[in-house]
Design goal:
Layout lengths: L8 H7 L3 E9 L3 H15 L6 E7 L6 H11 L3 E5 L6 H11 L2 E6 L11 H8 L5 E5 L7 H19 L11 E4 H4 L12 H7 L4 E5 L16 H18 L3 H28 L10 H32 L16
Helix pairs in contact: 2-3, 6-9, 10-11
Length: 333
């Protein structure tokens, strides 16, 4: 079955029967790996006895991947091909695949054959232990140490410390989610690596398990050291969304009062210089520093008030809840 620009996602859900498992695979210039990937996926999924679908999302490939994926979807039951108009990035491709997925469980994985499809069943078994998210951990990672593994180790430690969600390998795409959890997560920018963090914020039960990681045998890696800076910037955004999304005044107001406190200390220092050391105020930089700090402090408080108005408009105009209910129990139900 080939999906070509349906009018709405609802139209797709009406024609596609519910399935147990959706495997979402974003693809960007991986034509050399697709045949082997398709074969391994079918070998891993067919013995499971589950109703499954494989959703390939072509993220603007220019190497023939789209044509090969069209053949898969045209010739194989349970394969869906979603072809994006251009390269939107991995996060957008994953979000598109999730939107088209109808399975109760959604497994995400890369198309470069470094993730092992044989691990999918182990992820599902781990979910059955009562978890909502199972994150893959590439403990024996087959990548270069200085350019890939070392930055990843540092980034994973920083993310775990800042967010409080302890995972060894945020960068591993191979993860399994209950679909109901993903409904509470919205992906933007390059936020896909933080999906477990957003899921945890929605009350999901998260664990991780060691998965197989294989060396790349064809194609070219799409990642480099420049990703490290992006991860840090995204982490700042994630921390703000998690801690201050509904109370931004706490962040900006605290910063504002801290700045104004610094201004008071600067004035006190200037007065001490004047009356103890006989240094005239017009010869001390502390007075100018105090004025600057007071000005920045007032601006920070005003920014907090403005952000409060934006946040309230965001929630109230879209009728977004500020809480998420796991279940409701009533007598007789």
């Amino acid at each position: 079955m080939v999906i070509r620009e349906p009018e709405t996602l609802a139209d797709v859900s009406k024609t596609a029967p519910p399935v147990d498992l959706s495997v979402v695979v974003p693809v960007y210039n991986e034509v050399e790996n697709l045949d082997a990937l398709q074969g391994e996926l079918l070998d891993a999924l067919e013995p499971s006895g589950l109703n499954y679908e494989i959703i390939y999302v072509n993220d603007g490939s220019r190497d023939g991947s789209a044509a090969r994926l069209t053949e898969f979807a045209s010739q194989t039951d349970g394969v869906i091909f979603v072809n994006l108009r251009r390269n939107f990035g991995q996060t957008a491709a994953l979000a598109a695949g999730i939107d088209y997925a109808s399975g109760e469980v959604v497994v995400l994985m890369d198309a470069d054959l470094q993730n092992d499809p044989a691990d999918i069943q182990a992820l599902l078994d781990k979910l059955d232990e009562g978890y909502d998210v199972v994150s893959g951990w590439r403990r024996s990672r087959k990548d270069r140490f200085l350019t890939r593994r070392l930055p990843s180790i540092l980034a994973n430690g920083l993310i775990s410390r800042v967010t409080g969600v302890q995972l060894h390998d945020y960068g591993c795409t191979l993860k399994a989610y209950r679909h109901e959890v993903l409904k509470e997560v919205r992906l933007y920018g390059e936020m896909h690596r933080f999906t477990p963090v957003f899921a945890a914020a929605a009350g999901a039960r998260i664990t991780e398990m060691v998965v197989n990681h294989r060396p790349r045998i064809a194609g070219v890696s799409k990642y480099g050291l420049e990703r490290t800076l992006k991860v840090i910037l995204d982490l700042i955004t994630v921390k703000f969304l998690l801690s201050y999304r509904t109370r931004p005044m706490y962040l900006f107001g605290t910063a504002g009062f801290a700045l104004m406190g610094g201004g008071l200390l600067s004035i006190l220092g200037a007065l001490i210089q004047r009356f103890v050391f006989n240094v005239h105020l017009n010869r001390s930089p502390l007075l100018q520093l105090a004025a600057m700090l007071f000005g920045l402090g007032v601006q920070s408080v005003l920014l907090g008030l403005t952000t409060e108005l934006v946040v309230r408009t965001y929630f109230e105009s879209q009728h977004k809840p500020i809480y998420i209910v796991r279940e409701v129990v009533r007598k007789g139900e």
